[in-house]
Amino acid sequence: MTPIKYVSKVDLTKSGDQHPGVHNRWHPDVPSFATIKPGETVKIECLDWTGNQIKNDDCADDLRNVDLTRIHYLSGPFDIEGAEPGDCLVIELKDVQPLERRPWGYCGVFHKENGGGFLEKFYPECAKAIFDFEGIYATSRHIPHVKFAGLVHPGLMGTAPSPEILKEWNSRESELKEKHQHQHETEVALLPEEKNCHAGSATGDLLAKIGREGARTVPGRPEHGGNCDIKNLSRGSKCYFPVHVKGAKFSIGDLHFSQGDGEISFCGAIEMAGVVTLSASIIKGGVEKLKLKSPMYVPGEVANHYGPSRYLTFEGFSVDEHGDQKFLCLTTAYRQCCIRAIEYLRRFGYNDYQIYLFLSTAPIEGHIAGVVDVPNACTTLGIPMDIFDFDIRPEAEVKKLDMGNCAFVSGASHAVTFDFDKLEKK
Amino acid sequence: MTPIKYVSKVDLTKSGDQHPGVHNRWHPDVPSFATIKPGETVKIECLDWTGNQIKNDDCADDLRNVDLTRIHYLSGPFDIEGAEPGDCLVIELKDVQPLERRPWGYCGVFHKENGGGFLEKFYPECAKAIFDFEGIYATSRHIPHVKFAGLVHPGLMGTAPSPEILKEWNSRESELKEKHQHQHETEVALLPEEKNCHAGSATGDLLAKIGREGARTVPGRPEHGGNCDIKNLSRGSKCYFPVHVKGAKFSIGDLHFSQGDGEISFCGAIEMAGVVTLSASIIKGGVEKLKLKSPMYVPGEVANHYGPSRYLTFEGFSVDEHGDQKFLCLTTAYRQCCIRAIEYLRRFGYNDYQIYLFLSTAPIEGHIAGVVDVPNACTTLGIPMDIFDFDIRPEAEVKKLDMGNCAFVSGASHAVTFDFDKLEKK
Amino acid sequence: MTPIKYVSKVDLTKSGDQHPGVHNRWHPDVPSFATIKPGETVKIECLDWTGNQIKNDDCADDLRNVDLTRIHYLSGPFDIEGAEPGDCLVIELKDVQPLERRPWGYCGVFHKENGGGFLEKFYPECAKAIFDFEGIYATSRHIPHVKFAGLVHPGLMGTAPSPEILKEWNSRESELKEKHQHQHETEVALLPEEKNCHAGSATGDLLAKIGREGARTVPGRPEHGGNCDIKNLSRGSKCYFPVHVKGAKFSIGDLHFSQGDGEISFCGAIEMAGVVTLSASIIKGGVEKLKLKSPMYVPGEVANHYGPSRYLTFEGFSVDEHGDQKFLCLTTAYRQCCIRAIEYLRRFGYNDYQIYLFLSTAPIEGHIAGVVDVPNACTTLGIPMDIFDFDIRPEAEVKKLDMGNCAFVSGASHAVTFDFDKLEKK
Amino acid sequence: MTPIKYVSKVDLTKSGDQHPGVHNRWHPDVPSFATIKPGETVKIECLDWTGNQIKNDDCADDLRNVDLTRIHYLSGPFDIEGAEPGDCLVIELKDVQPLERRPWGYCGVFHKENGGGFLEKFYPECAKAIFDFEGIYATSRHIPHVKFAGLVHPGLMGTAPSPEILKEWNSRESELKEKHQHQHETEVALLPEEKNCHAGSATGDLLAKIGREGARTVPGRPEHGGNCDIKNLSRGSKCYFPVHVKGAKFSIGDLHFSQGDGEISFCGAIEMAGVVTLSASIIKGGVEKLKLKSPMYVPGEVANHYGPSRYLTFEGFSVDEHGDQKFLCLTTAYRQCCIRAIEYLRRFGYNDYQIYLFLSTAPIEGHIAGVVDVPNACTTLGIPMDIFDFDIRPEAEVKKLDMGNCAFVSGASHAVTFDFDKLEKK
Question: Where in this chain does the entry annotate a coiled-coil region (chains A, B, C, D) (predicted)?
């Protein structure tokens, strides 16, 4: 038996838009890069989501400047032989690995002026942490005393939209922007943008059209999946996608070595280049048969596994950090979980940005608890205690350790301790 | 060794307000019912949340009429010897069991005019399912072909608020009501209400005062826990609470034999009377030491355990059922997960109300996936496939089974199939 | 719904042989005590295996004198309606709990002259530890600093033998005794013995016959199960038994709150009185259909759950404690695992008998690794580190704690440290 | 960061004895191949245990002829900087993977005249199955309808013996052979053998000496580990070895993609060439500190994970296949488990050799249950039901599938169904 066939390779010395087999917009007309037969197992290499823009160093300048029109360089699209609109495409993720030639990844907090993140109001600065991969484990010189196994997964997988679906996306996201942008300090939606559009081998008019119409890749979308950032959609998962165009035009990328639920810092998982081993199959007429309006999946049987009693778990409610009462808002509740975890973990010597990056990358469990007890929704955030090399239990004696620092932009240090108690009601 | 001491017993033939050892409001002045010594293990019996209002029958009339001023009959409050404001109260839940003399429980969808639930817009009617307990398992004649082990837990635990905290609660919830009630069809918050206030042995002026000022029990609140409905806060869990008044005045109740994440039908878990075995201890000055602004906990090591690859998992995004684009709203996303699961499961013969009750009670996993990919948040809902006695995998052949029905109010049947496709943009 | 029906109750103030619903021999003619219908869920109370001979105290005199003709007082036999020879009896263990009125159990090392145990050559004395039950947990004043959740199970379940099978048992065990007893210091098999035979309501000639012919209960036997001591055959398990006589005549007893794999100290689990909730069903002709020569089972989904990385695991090989080379002997290998664990754990202050009792009762994992690499078989013994309240990892600093002692016979203390290094080749 | 350093590479076109960095005997004088610094993470390639003797085809001739003097081509020995006798060497297995350039492995039943296996009396012939690796999964055209994730591990790791220990090994194994070989049909121990001895760069007198004195690699041995074949000693495990010579001289090999507990067919796991990522550290004086007479380990947190209720579990007792009563013999008991599993699984269409190979390679759990209930020891064998693509539960309807066949020697087919019932007492 010969080695498994690669249908796509990447060049780590070239930027994303120099690759003919990657694209960074969703559009039915992005040219197919290769064809995969049902049942065939293939390997697909993927760039990191920025297409080689980030360096393994101790400075966040590269991250500060990432242009959101130049991200999510996805491998594909791949035609799946025989797939037609209305079918269900089943992708079996047989493995996801970092590239042997690049045994590291990174996590970043985006600057508030450049996309921000879940806690941008408190942590507006740009920060970066590099993670080294040694076998199944990641460690970071920027977040010491932590080591964890990767629940490696693609942050982004999806089928191409039909023209109708694409139109629907653009319309509903524009509407949101029109109605609600004024209430927000950061972008509420990223609309089609010709600048820096890359669509594989497309050039000229076709490329321009894709740029004008193509949906941006940041949000996951119910109709096809996309940037879902589901940490448990890892090795061994079977994922079921609706097919909207002939061949399905499946794309994959934004690989993560590990991610915490929520991917809270936005560039938030351990971002990496890597290689996926997968096979595809088709359930004819599966959209109707399975009532498949959004992707669904069954995870694999191999995963990090800590035992329920090893999670220190924080509770959050939909009363925000100012003490304002929200109505059954899980988003507010989960933000409070994050804040509680930050306040707890800084006792050991980490600064807030380090913890922000930690919560974004480690195998953190973010669960919905109650969503009907008006007016408070409740969520939980569980931290596996075994990934620290010291004892973080509430009963343990606290010894502050030298935790170093994460990377910031040139010359800066934002090793802050944000005082949440000073916030007042708005 | 003698049997473990009961500090509280309940009478299943009497209503909640006939019990001197239970109360249904949060107030610092609710008289303590008993004292528990640190380190001592005790048993506490609890009424079901309605205080015996629901019958084991096939009619939902009893549920239709539940008055929300007469709910959450909690056992306690209990003074913990030595606890003082600023301490952390550690409750170790050593067991939670149904009462041997009442081996059944119930789940209800509340009528939209009486509280409603997470899917009240589509399922406004009242419905009920009775569950029989046989050892570790529950089954329901109203939701056939399903059997699952209970992850038994108290839906509600908390310490008493200080007068200041109570004031804060009342103020912020009133404010919400003032500002936002007009946008909602159901109550956004339940404010203090003298009617049907029950405060253990309190009578006369004291009772009246508690009724006027006492916080309602429906929402969990960050300062003390309360009605969190965290399904994993089960047997073996250690829970850490802030203490706000001398003795802590700990209360517990609203026991659940099992619950799905979200407790979506509101009366949403398998509600039951039962007995808790617990011990208490105190970390002096723990609020400051642990930065304990909200409860946190470590689950126990005994739990239902299905293996990751046994969960059929649905994805939901913050595009609502009308196709309207919401901004990073996990609540919207989780509602879409629920709808996807309903559409899928009805293929096997269940009607929508049965599935609604099922999702509310079975050990459903509701997880946060991504919460930064503007404008779409993503959540997942995982159903353990092993709790069905038929094959629900996407690959399985579908045979519709006779699924009977759940209980509705006298004479009614709402065995509906809601057509989500007919919803239009608002 | 009324409480679940008890088909058998026990009296904790009376000895085993005063109970008409229990028996201590296997024989087809033991009178049936009650009938269970297929599909019906019932409760069965069980005595502890000695039938109330052991006291909750700090002296092992009671254990020293346990007469092995007066043990295993099993509840039953129960007729299962419709069961006939050749059928498969399916028992679903819906729960196993200690009795609320007796929240404690015990573990004992039997004296070498009275049955001994797996390590009798090194630890010939009698020792005892009492365990207190608080909810799902057990602790022992005789083995401090350890707390674990019970994987509660019946040590013994089985169907009655047919006359032919009984004859086969007696013949093969007699043969063993004849051929090999001279090589052993303790009994190699316990043959039928009229003395202290108890067979429920049987009296006179019938009782005498059962005594003369009835198989002793100590060994599990392939044809029907019996005293298998399988710790994972716990709550939720479905167990499949061959039926050899009309009605199956199912018996159950020897309940364990917890046990380590191997049950090495013989009276080796946490022995307790308790109550089982179970239902029975029948697969007609199941012996042939399932090729069912020995019982098989599927465990339940609720169990203690520590995560693979929480087990400190010792390796043992079939080179015995004298350095003698055995041939692919798993029994020798597992004994070496036990010795390695004893030598390791005594670093923390426990004496050898305490550790012997610990390994016998805690949820220890005993696994077969390799059994073909001539001449050495290899086994492993895994200790869940989370059940200690101090750190037992190899990396941890060792502080000897005051570990008290277990109970011995009046006036004695055998808090020994056996010097395995002094053993010489035989 | 540069890719992780390889300290050893293998050539798949050359036989084991053409590699200067591998050896197939244990001896303190085998020349060290490289040095590893404590804390450094390195990669080590390993040959399959036969050193490239087995082909990916449908004929077992290659396996039939494997000479047991030409096996276990181990990578190493590696000096660990600073290690001295009496220290504890800690190996952290950060990953174990098949080689990308050889995505397949094999399992073999050795012919009874060439080593045999655990069931050699019933299955004396040679058989082979090829497994293809696709990501984390293995499938075999020779055992259809089964797919499982690999719990990849080195079957063999160990430190070099001191001259004294080597002498002890040779003496005790010779003694066994002298005393007991006459009772066995296959070899009870493999003594030193100059023929085909390979010791890395050693030549001439040194090689001859190593051949004359060097211990064979088949058995694991308590003093240093060696061929333990512990399936759970997989990715993420930390393993603690005694050091007996300066530098420790650590060797590793015999990689397995997957193995069932017991590795029953001898060439019994999925044997493969592969690459290990590991780091080493030293606990000075660790042998005395940890009472380390045999290796111990803590598994990693990433593993196949099926949930307890997904194992169909067979019970075995120490009454052998002839009905002869053995005394507390776990080896006999485990053999009965295997036979029960074979009799059960053949209902679905597999022949006995296929099942033998299956039990040897799939993630089968072999556990010790009771080892004190004279005269019967009890073991269990658990099969994860999820690895079949059809339903193997006892309740499922049986449909015989076309199961093809495994490979046998040229021209032969031994697709037998051994009739265990015909065996008579010896």
Answer: none
Ranges of H-type helices in A197-349: 204-213, 286-289, 330-345
Residue at B235 is within a domain: yes
**D283 and D359 together in one domain:** no
A421 part of a folded domain? no
Look at residue B425 and tell me if it is in a domain: no
- Torsional class of C261: left (φ above 0), alpha (ψ -120 to 50), beta (otherwise): beta
What's the pLDDT tens digit per position in D348-359? Answer: 999 999 999 999
- pLDDT tens per residue across span C58-94: 999 999 989 999 999 999 999 999 999 999 999 999 9
- The dihedrals phi and psi of D171, each to the nearest 5 degrees, come to -70, -45
Question: Would you say residue A189 lies in a domain?
Answer: yes
Segment A172-193 mean pLDDT: 95
Domain count, chain D: 2
Q: What is the mean pLDDT of residues D250-272?
A: 97
Q: In chain B, positions 286-345, which contact chain D (CB-CB < 8 Å)?
A: 305-310
Residue entry with tokens 């089943």? A90
- Are B16 and B87 contained in the same domain? yes
Q: What is the pLDDT of residues B171-230, one digit of tens each?
A: 999 999 999 999 999 999 999 999 999 999 999 999 999 999 999 999 999 999 999 999
- Best CA proximity match to D83, nearest among D274, D287, D255: D287
* A102 vs D contacts (CB less than 8 Å): 3
Kindly state whether residues C115 and C256 are assigned to the same domain: yes
Do C238 and C337 lie in one domain? The reply is: no
What span, in angstroms and rounded, lies between the C-alpha atoms of B333 and B319? 7
Q: Check if B190 contacts A (Cβ < 8 Å).
A: yes
Pick D132's closest partner by Cβ from A1, A101, A103: A1
Is a pLDDT exceeding 90 seen at residue D47? Answer: yes
Looking at residue C425, what is its pLDDT? 81
Mutate to test the interface with A, among D101, D137, D151 (most CBs of A within 10 A): D137
**Which value does ipTM take for this structure?**
0.96
Region B345-373 average pLDDT? 97
Q: How far is CA C104 from CA B302, C66, C107, C167, C206, in A?
A: 20, 19, 11, 38, 36
Determine how β-strand C220-221 pairs with β-strand B225-226: unpaired
Pair D326, D277 in one domain: no
Task: Identify whether residues A341 and A370 lie together within a single domain.
Answer: yes
- Measured in angstroms, the CA of C218 and the nearest CA of chain D are apart by 5
Phi, psi of A62 (to 5 degrees): -60, -40
Q: Give pLDDT tens digits for D8-46.
A: 999 999 999 999 999 999 999 999 999 999 999 999 999
Q: Indicate whether A325 and A271 sit together in one domain.
A: no
- Provide the token pair at A387: 């990934």
| C284 and C344 housed in the same domain | no
Q: How many CB atoms lie within 10 A of CB D19?
A: 22
Phi-psi region of A421 (alpha: psi -120 to 50; beta: other; left: phi over 0): alpha
CB of C117 closer than 8 Å to CB of C9? no
Residue at a domain's end among D248, D267, D298: D298
- The DSSP H or E segment spanning B103 is none
CB A93 within 8 A of CB A239: yes
Position C1 scores a pLDDT of 65
Q: Which residues of A touch B380 (CB under 8 A)?
A: 230, 232
Count CA atoms within 13 Å of residue A232 on its CB side: 32
CA within 13 Å, CB half, C193: 14
| pTM of the predicted model over 0.90 | yes
Last residue of a domain, one of A279, A298, A317: A298
Domain that holds residue D232: 5-298
CATH of the domain at B235: 2.60.120.580
Subunits touching C (CB < 8 Å, at least 3 pairs)?
A, B, D
Chain A residue with CA closest to B178: the answer is A325
User: What SS3 class is residue B391?
Assistant: coil
